[in-house]
Predict the 3D structure of the following.
Amino acid sequence: MESRLHAAPEQALKSTVLGEDHRRRGGRMVAFAGYAMPVQYETGILKEHQWTRAHAGAFDVSHMGPAFLDIAGPSDDPEARHAAAAAAIEPLVSGDIAGLKPGQLRYTLLLNEQGGVLDDLMVGRPADPKFHGRLYIVVNAGCKEADFSLIEAAIGDRGRLVRADDGALIALQGPEAADVLTALLPEALDLSFMNFRRLPFEGRQLRVARSGYTGEDGFEILAPAPVAAALWARLLADERVRPIGLGARDSLRLEAGLPLYGHDIDDTVSPIEAGLGFAVSKRRLKTGRMRGAARIARELAEGPSRLRVGLRILEGAPAREGAQILRSDGANVGVVTSGGFSPTLGAPIAMGFVPPAQAASGTRLFVDVRGRRQAAEVTPLPFVPHRYHRGD
Amino acid sequence: MRFSKDHEWVNLDGSEATIGITAYAAGQLGDIVFVDLPAAGKAVKSGDGLAVVESVKAASDVFSPLTGEVTGVNPALADNPETVNDAPEAGGWFVKLKVANPAEFDQLMDRDAYEAFLRTL
């Protein structure tokens, strides 16, 4: 027996501040983006996935790249300071950063000049006017060195980027996440989806965002290193919470239809092809001052040559990344970019790219798994409905 | 029952071998959601790919510890792949093989040797 996913030797891997705790809890550590990370704990991916959908899961995602971008403001006016910070980063990203309200987070895309996606990231504007002129950003683990270099080069001497990846980033996800967190931090209840704020915990400031990567209600919490282990322990002391590894994180995000950078999106894929047009600011596209604006505008007007779609695999084995997608006449029309087994649906699901002619929901296609042709059907995303807390 | 270093087990009854994966292997794979089994009649050499086990996370190859011809596969695994997790060394068997070279069986580890091997991992 030989797994097709090879665990790299753990020497030379970085550990998050919670690494020892994962080992103590039976975490099976694997190499991921240069870090030793738990792929699962003792109960396994399937039970961790189901627990998160039913209760609350705690995920260590400290390998990611949280940072603060501080721009020296032109005045004491909080709005002018935010406008200056937004102007510093907007040339690199697809989204409307100037239009962020205090305390709001936005999912956006770092673009290259061809309109390809260099990374997907969160950008937030602090709630407190005292901190306007600062942006909270969180980028992907595997991209963080390149992203931070790109951002630093773009801002030059207008400001500075302060990394915050020496602490912990902890996601608490699931229908019971809000009850769990508000027992610890009552003010977290006031947050609605895609908002964040500073909240004190044991004498330090957390950044608590109502966001996540599972499709469930939940939070992503940046904790400074000195209080990270205490926060993790307090969350896990609640019987509604179990630690969840990267394996279930992947199956949860796949069911939620959320793209994984480096797999479903990369530097050749445009936001429009990826179905992420909502992350493209219409105001900024109109001005043309966006990397890859010509391609993005053309694809919006004329339609892209390929689209990211969901696929239900109707028979046989899961279709994994790289599996070819075929039309009923056998013509090769695309490729699977993420695939696996959906614990919620009890069936294999996948995402991949196909031409617009094959992208309508209900289109019957085939996937090639180890030379066998298996029926598949284009399915709307998400596979499992989102349950975000959008407020009253 | 004999064992391979790739974590397959074999029972030999006359010239017919029953092959599966060990409890250790099933535990390492985690929750098994699909088993891709060979067609009856397929000829395999020892070391060839015999089956593919799909867990939630990944696909893993199962290699044939013996040379022979597939005479049957476990029909229960089509609808209940989790049988491999529940009873890896009994009801969760994969394949029956008509063995070409019984001497290969004698070269596999017995349980004591396999358990000693596991302690080295």
